[in-house]
Design a protein that fits this description.
The chain has 278 residues and is an all-alpha fold. The chain has one domain. Helices cover 79% and strands 0% of the residues. The chain is built from 9 helices and no strands. Helix 2 packs antiparallel against helix 6 and helix 5 packs antiparallel against helix 8.
């Protein structure tokens, strides 16, 4: 039953990415709508960041205080804070490095920015190059989705079912918007459904795999590290979503959707905890 549960959790969280990919097939798309969706997703992730980091801080402070009280080895007072800081740093800076090295290192930054901002390919952006940019974005998203899947699996294996479900809801809603980010450089080229299916598998599949792998052992230290990785990835993605939300929509609408998204996350957390009786 545990394997089936993990399969379902990983599938729900990961493959919602396909919901956003079909926009690449449209000749025109509402920039305002994309801006509002991106901002709402950023708001959901901001709440998720607060929730995930709250859990990580609780684990870390508990270990430090226990070490100072003499009930845990003194090494825990250093080891767990380093895990937290290291995980956030790897999750955030690793994606920044990947973006600089494998996305912006291949094409001029201005071309990518204009393609995303205008939702259409600039004249200098050929179809082959647009396909390569979309593939690199999918790979980058897949890397951080793997850490998200590990966090889901670890939370489930550790008995934190409500947190696992919240992660599924939050990452699932977010992954639905990630498809827009992958599809943006392809707007106007009308890529094949087969290519879009491949992009979705690369971007969303790692969540599914990570959930299964992370669900078969329970380690407090590993759980903390994976949550920190996810937190770092969230910080990175929130920055991207807010940027695209801002360039696609009006300031007041963008911030309004951000607030709405935050309270959607808060409401989903309350519903999950109420349903589980926690």
């Amino acid at each position: 039953m545990q394997l089936l549960d993990l399969v379902l959790l990983g599938a729900v969280a990961g493959f919602t990415i396909y919901l956003g990919l079909p926009i690449a097939r449209l000749k025109s798309a509402s920039a305002g709508l994309k801006g509002m969706l991106n901002s709402a997703a950023a708001g959901i992730l901001l709440f998720l960041l607060v929730d995930v980091m709250g859990d990580a801080f609780e684990t870390t402070s508990g270990k430090v205080l226990a070490a100072l009280a003499g009930t845990e080895p003194m090494s825990s007072a250093l080891f767990y804070p380093l895990l937290l800081v290291g995980g956030v740093s790897v999750g955030l800076l690793g994606l920044v490095w990947f973006e600089d090295r494998y996305i912006f290192g291949q094409v001029p930054k201005g071309a990518v920015s204009r393609a995303l901002a205008e939702s259409k390919p600039p004249a200098a952006l050929s179809e082959d190059k647009a396909n390569r940019i979309a593939m690199m974005i999918a790979i980058g998203i897949g890397l951080h989705n793997f850490s998200e899947g590990l966090a889901i699996g670890q939370s489930y294996a550790g008995g934190a079912i409500s947190l696992a479900l919240l992660l599924v809801v939050g990452f699932g809603l977010h992954n639905a918007t990630e498809g827009f980010g992958i599809a943006a450089p392809l707007s106007g080229f009308k890529p094949s459904w087969k290519f879009l299916a491949l992009l979705g598998l690369i971007g969303g599949g790692p969540t599914f795999i990570g959930a299964i792998i992370g669900g078969f052992w329970v380690s407090e230290a590993a759980s903390l590290f994976f949550l920190a990785l996810a937190a770092g990835a969230i910080i990175y993605v929130v920055k991207e979503l807010l940027y695209h939300g801002r360039i696609h929509g009006e300031g007041l609408k963008v911030m309004g959707c951000l607030v709405l998204g935050f309270f959607i996350g808060f409401g989903s957390d309350l519903l999950i905890k109420y349903a589980l009786g926690s």
